[in-house]
Amino acid sequence: MRENIIHDNSLSEVHGSVDTTGKSKGWKKIFSFLGPAYLVSVGYMDPGNWATDLAGGSKYGYTLIWVLLMSNLMALLLQSLSARLGIVRGRDLAQANRETYPKLINFILWILAEVAIAACDLAEVLGMAIGIKLLTGLPLIWGVSFTVLDTFLLLYLQRLGIRKMEAFIIALIAVIGVCFLVNIIIAQPPLFEVLKGIIPSLPEAKDLYASKGMINALPPETALYLAIGIIGATVMPHNLYLHSALVQTRKIIKTPAGIKQALKWSFVDSAIALNIAFLINAAILILAAKVFFTTGRTDVGEIEQAHQLLSPMLGSTVASTLFAIALIAAGQSSTITGTLAGQIVMEGYLRLRINPIMRRLITRLLAIIPAILVIAIAGEKEVDSLLIFSQVILSLQLGFAVIPLIHFVSDKKTMGEFAIKPVIKTMAWLVASVLVYLNVKLVSEKSIEYFAEPGNLLYKLIIIISAAGFGFLLVYSLIFPLINKKKKSVSIQMHPEFVALNDLTVPIYKKIAVALDFSENDTKLILSAIGQGKKETFFILIHIVESASATLLGTETDDYETHKDKERLDFFTNQLKEKGYEAKGILGFRQRAREIVRIVKAEGADMLVVGAHGHTGIKDLIYGTTVDSVRHELKIPVLVVTL
Question: Percent helix, strand, coil in the chain (nearest 5)?
Fold first, then answer.
């Protein structure tokens, strides 16, 4: 039988931090549920979507608005399923995958999810950098470098709480919305043509362009090809991980009535937020249609090009400025949620929690380094190609998030009465099929073009092997939950079943290590260690010498600080021996955390006592995070004494 995995809370620092169970009624009660979907919605209006919206409007006018609407309905369905998983089972998508699929498959799914998040972050970094360049004239490579600073902004927002973070994101969405609203008012698009664009149609390009007297400007792409691009760039895999975790920031009553209430208001939250995202995407397409398509500029598909042409064609310099501000706001809001998704994926799949600031720096550097290399080697002209490449990478990952999600919310054993109904299940599988097909179609067409070119046999072989691997994994993720008969029924409760405390044998620690920092706190640490032991317990006192020469020479150092540290360690050891305890002192050198772990393991200690100074954030970078580093490396109890 598969082992019953103890569940860790998703986004534990803000898990259940918004109480919806209070006595408040009316709008206050409703507002307590609203918020998570706004953090998700920014992924649907990130800079990666702008290029397809601009191209759709400039090449085909208002006729592809219905594609945006259809994409929005698909996204609403999938995001509501993601929220359902989090509310009912108390799992995010990564955790649910970890409980269902074998270790190797989970590891591959984790890698793919991380790649998807890095690709998404790449698009957001480039979008912000382009916006900064358009607004200030700063070179693109500097703009990309500066985006690393918003890592600290996210860390600060998380400390303020999830509601403050949601308010910040909503404010950025409002900035984007106002900027495009003003531009739409300036452009004054014909309302009838806009409404006509909601009706599904794929007009022949030659007819459409002939009606505008622009038959010579016929674009090489078909409307179908561009429609596929718009749909493929809409649903983001990281948003499905994100939403299933964010809904768990709401503390709800885990009864059928409480869960039904949470599901209802979560759907309302998603409907409002995603419709705002649809209106903003539609505004970009409508603006491009009015300003570029109707004037014959059907070649506009790049963000910088659109920015340069907006003001001359609308007769107002405000238009371009607002466009750049909206682009920066879109990039900033999207990158915050992208790094949150990175945390969810790592913790869910690996149960690995690392320093939050390091987690965000790693995610950001994975996006910044490729961007800087491309700009430095090929120049700024290749940025749009890099933006498109990031969307292709995202497209490849989508099936690996959507397919397991539908399986999980369809499972009556784990979802109970909240498993989705047959009609919703059919719609979900239809949407998944369409999305996977369209994304595979886009990627395969690009591959066929590449294979038509001579040479590059090694790269072509890699593409073939990768495609076969992706195909196998896609089929496996589809079939495995259906044939896995060993899967245990999992309660919607946050923890496993109660286990009786039959065996109350108290452990006896024979060797206790104490990490001393030679401050006024050493006595407190030693007393805490004595409190955990018995009279026969052996105490190992550890101190790490961190002088310059000790760092360079290690055990061979013979400087003044090493001598004084040895004297002090001997003093404490002798004090313990005089009081009847067995003890010895050991000096370590160079890296503090690594040396503590090495000495503890070498001495066979069965407990470590270590002090924590309580500093966080920037101070972690200055003073280091010994406690976290040590406890992740040891398999013995670690007593952390607050100093």
Answer: 70, 5, 25
Nearest to 223 by CA among 57, 392, 450, 23: 57
For residue 132, which of 117, 145, 118 has the smallest C-alpha distance?
Answer: 145
Domain boundaries along the sequence of the chain = 21-406+421-483, 511-642
Interatomic CA distance for residues 296 and 309, integer angstroms: 12
Instruction: Tell me which DSSP letter residue 585 carries.
Output: E
Sequence-separated (6 or more) residues with CB below 8 Å from residue 493? 90, 254
SS3 641: strand
What would the pLDDT profile of 545-582 be if each residue is shown by its tens digit? 877 777 777 777 777 888 888 999 999 999 999 988 99
Task: Provide the b/e sequence for 557-589 (b: ≥16 CB within 10 Å).
Answer: beeeebeebeebbeebbeebeeeebebebbbbb
pTM of the model: 0.70
Residue type for position 548: A
How far apart are alpha carbons 289 and 296 in whole angstroms? Answer: 10
Amino acid at the residue 102: P
- Give the list of residues 6+ apart from residue 313 with CB closer than 8 angstroms, or none: 291, 292, 295, 297
Say how far apart CA 435 and CA 471 lie, in whole Å.
Answer: 15
Strands (E), 95-243: none
Q: Do domains 21-406+421-483 and 511-642 have the same CATH topology?
A: no
Cα 263 from Cα 79, distance rounded (Å): 12
Higher-scoring residue by pLDDT: 315, 310: 310
The CATH number of 511-642 is 3.40.50.620
The C-alpha angle 485, 239, 323, rounded to 5 degrees, equals: 165
DSSP-assigned beta bridge partners for residue 582: 538
Q: How many other CB atoms are there within 10 angstroms of residue 260's CB atom?
A: 13
The CATH homologous superfamily of the domain defined by 21-406+421-483: Hydantoin permease (1.10.4160.10)
Per the CB < 8 A criterion, the answer to whether 381 and 140 are in contact is: no
Q: Is-contact 263 418, C-beta < 8 A?
A: yes
Whose CA is closest to 307, among 318, 284, 294, 323? 323
pLDDT at 77 > cutoff 90? yes
| DSSP string computed for 69-91 | HHHHHHHHHHHHHHHHHHHHHS-
What DSSP character marks residue 42?
G
Flag whether pLDDT at 455 surpasses 80. Answer: no
Report the Cα 100 to chain-centroid distance in Å: 21
Give the closest residue to 123 by CA, choosing from 367, 363, 340, 439.
Answer: 367
